[in-house]
Amino acid sequence: MSYRALRALCLYAVVALFLTTGCGYGEISPVAYAYAKALYSICNRHAGDQIGNAQQQIESARRRGELSEREARWLTRIIEQARAGKWESATGAARQMMEDQVE
Fold first, then answer.
1. For every one of its 103 residues, what pLDDT tens digit does the chain have, with 9 covering 90 and above?
2. Is residue 44 part of a domain?
3. Cβ count within 10 A of residue 95
4. Residue 77 falls within a domain, yes or no?
5. Where are the alpha helices (DSSP H) in 1-103?
6. Environment class of residue 35 by beta-carbon count within 10 Å: exposed (0-12), middle (13-18) or buried (19+)?
7. Domain for residue 74, yes or no?
8. What is the span of the domain harbouring residue 83?
């Protein structure tokens, strides 16, 4: 097998793996889902005045063990997008997190 053919085969394998496993969020807890839902609402309304409170609640839930580190990190990234004024991206990320639980 030539180098070019091997390279193409590897590329196809990577693409196939990506398409079958997706690149979204993994399974999350009901608590994380509730926070994603709240962040979706906040971001959809561009309610910047509520972002700080959401961040505090997420951090408190993480410290109490109600959210995993991974879940808190994902939710915090959504908050960071909102704080940067990327409301549509933040709204989309929160929606994606919820949708990934249905599939």
1. 776 776 766 555 544 444 434 457 888 999 999 999 999 999 999 999 999 999 999 999 999 999 999 999 999 999 999 999 999 999 999 999 999 988 5
2. yes
3. 16
4. yes
5. 3-21, 30-44, 51-63, 69-83, 87-102
6. buried
7. yes
8. 30-102
pTM for the full model?
0.76
Q: 21: which 2 tokens?
A: 């496993």
- Of 59, 89, 85, the C-alpha closest to 72 is 59
Angle between helices 69-83 and 87-102 (to 10 degrees): 150
Say how far apart CA 84 and CA 65 lie, in whole Å. Answer: 28
Total tally of structural domains belonging to the chain: 1
* Beta carbons of 101 and 33 less than 8 angstroms apart: yes
